[in-house]
Each structure stands twice: as C-alpha cells, then as structure tokens.
Amino acid sequence: MITFIDESGKFVKNDGWSVVAALTLTHSFAAQARRKLGPETRDWPRVDGELKGRSLSDLQFKNLVQVLWRHQALLHVVAVNVGLEDADGIRRHKLIQAEKMTANLTDEHHPELVKQVEKLRASLEAMPDQLYIQSVAMTQLIWECAQNAAMYFSTRKPEELARFEWKIDAKSSNGETKQETWWKSVLGPIFESNADHHQFVSLDDSKADYSFFDQAHALEKKLWRPNGDNKRVSGFDIGKLIIKTTEFVDSRSDILLQTADILANRTRRCFQDTIFDNQTAADLGRLQIVQSRQGARQVVKIISLTQHKCRNKGRIADMSAAPVDFSGREISLHQPLSQMLEMDQLIFREQRKRRFTKRLVRGQRSVRLLDVGECQKLVHFVFDKPDVTGVVREI
Q1: pLDDT for residue 312
Q2: Which of 193, 215, 274, 320 could, after both became Cys, cross-link 328 (CB 3.0–4.6 A)?
Q3: Domain limits at 124?
C-alpha cells in the first residue's frame, strides 16, 4: 500500500488547531485514482500549479472524495490545538526527550557513537517548537496509519501488506531539511524503544490474512537493554515497514499528495469552525475508520504534549505522545550512530479481537459536536443509520 502525508496549520500558539493527514490506497487503486483525478480536476482552480483545499468548491470536494471512496482510500488524521498547549510545557517535553536520547550512553560506548548521538540531541534541542510538535504528530500518525491500514487491508487485499510506501510533502526542493532528516533518523529507535509498551496491533480474526506481512517484515534479533536483560526476540522490521520506504517528495509531482493536503485542510477548517457543516464532515467521514477513544467514538486522534484538561470529559488528548526513552536498541559499542541506525530495528505485534467489519457503503451520516469546555469542540463523525448494503466499520 502507499500512503501520502501532508499537514495543515502552522503548529504555533496563535494558529489554533493544526493537523497532519495520511491518505492510504493500495498500489493498484492509487494508479487508477491518479488516472481518474487527472481529467476530473483538469479545470479546477490551482495555486502555483497545485490543487488546494481553500480553492475548491463544496461540489468539487465532494467529487474528489467520491473518487477516493470508490478506490477504497483510507484517511487518518492527528490533530493538536497548540493554542491550548503551555509553551513552557512544550519546551520541557522537548528537553526531556533530548535527555532521554543520551541517558543510556556510558564511558564504554565508542567516542564516535557518543559524538553522533549528542549531535542528534543538539539538533533536537535547537529545533523550533512548532517543528517539534509537528514531528511528534507525524510520529503518532505513521503509527496509527500503519496499524489500521494493515488491519483494514488484511481482510481485503492482504498482498498489499508486503510493502508499505510513505510519500511525505517535502518542505524544500533542495533535498531533506534538517528537521526531516532528524525525524527520519530517530523514527526507528523511537518505535523500537516503545516496542514493549506500544505493540503493533493486528486483527485476530479468521478472515485476516497476515501471511504476506509476516513473510516481508519478520525479523529476529538480540534486543539490547540498559539493565543487561538482553535476549533474542522475534518481531517485525521497522526499516522495511516504514523507514526505508519513506520519501519526502514535491507535492507538485503527485496529485494524490495534493489530495492529502486538501483533506488535511478541510479537516482543520472543520475544527476551526471555518466551514463546519454536516456535509463536509460526512464527506470526510466516508474515508475514515471510527474508533473508540476514552469511551467516545471518533475518527480524529487528538494529542497533547502538556496534559491540559477539559471540564466535563477529563483529558481528551491522547498522552501517547509522551517523551520516549531510547532504551530498547541493540547498540554496538564500536559502531558510529550512522551504522547503528541502519541496523534492523524491531517491533512486536499483538493480536486483538476487534470489531472491524465492512466499510460503510452508503448510509445517512450526521455530525455530533461534543462540548469540551476550553478544549473547544471535538469533532465526531457518527454513522447513525447505515442501510442494508453496509455496516459501520469500527475499531
């Protein structure tokens, strides 16, 4: 499968909600969608040669979603309201993460390795807060999308689980930015360090076929731990699953990457109340998976870095965005970091029985707004009355 990722919002204090969005299709459907969208959007307005959400009419947006829906596209979104975050708390979150990057280094480590790890830490400490928040949201999005897309297509097109591709909108035409390089470098260690606590959830169902996934991504290695409890474990290769197939590309080169930008823009504008209406939310909801989060059904994952709370629902934000302790890596004491990070990194898979049924083919959709006090409004896309041709798909 192939996933296209873009963001909307500036991730700064005075800009309200910011979101990152991932649009996932199978390889065959991605090619078909491109061929369909080419002539469909030929006369649509463009900005600097690109389709933009703010330039499209409601009818054009509806037609765009219809094309994606017919090609079994999935949309995942992670949102953060930076306006509600505490600036000192964000900086504290970043500094704690920086400290954890070097916490397990000792005098026994090779000087070159220590030097390169400290360089990564220095890059993080110097990173502007808005880029750090965005990198945290991106990490959450990748993990969320990889799990859910694998579960969804394991019952439909299991062969697509053999290869995951990730296309992310590049911020520079001159190659990766420093922040992009840093994020891509630490993504594998972050996931492996979290392997014991956040396992890759798979669908425990007789209809789910993970044979292609297992064959392509299975990995066995000795997992190093600071407490000396080193053991050989079996899991799945993060490099093949995500890191080695992630590419930053110019959005002008791919209409599906432009489409991810449009979906991110429309979702953010719903959160900002700019264009909120039932039809826009229903259109977005056609591409999304309903999940139960803290007892509420919703399709957008909301994160917080500073643990702000709401009056009537407690904390609505998912605190899985906490700093990561880099303690689960296999570290060779005589290798530089560049080689260490190129080593195969591992995650575990956990099977869970989940209600994960056919996608809703057609049905009446309504939107429910939940009053969450100072957290403004939490958008819920709720399927009320599905007809006989489909049922709600829910995790």
Answers
A1: 29
A2: 193
A3: 2-386
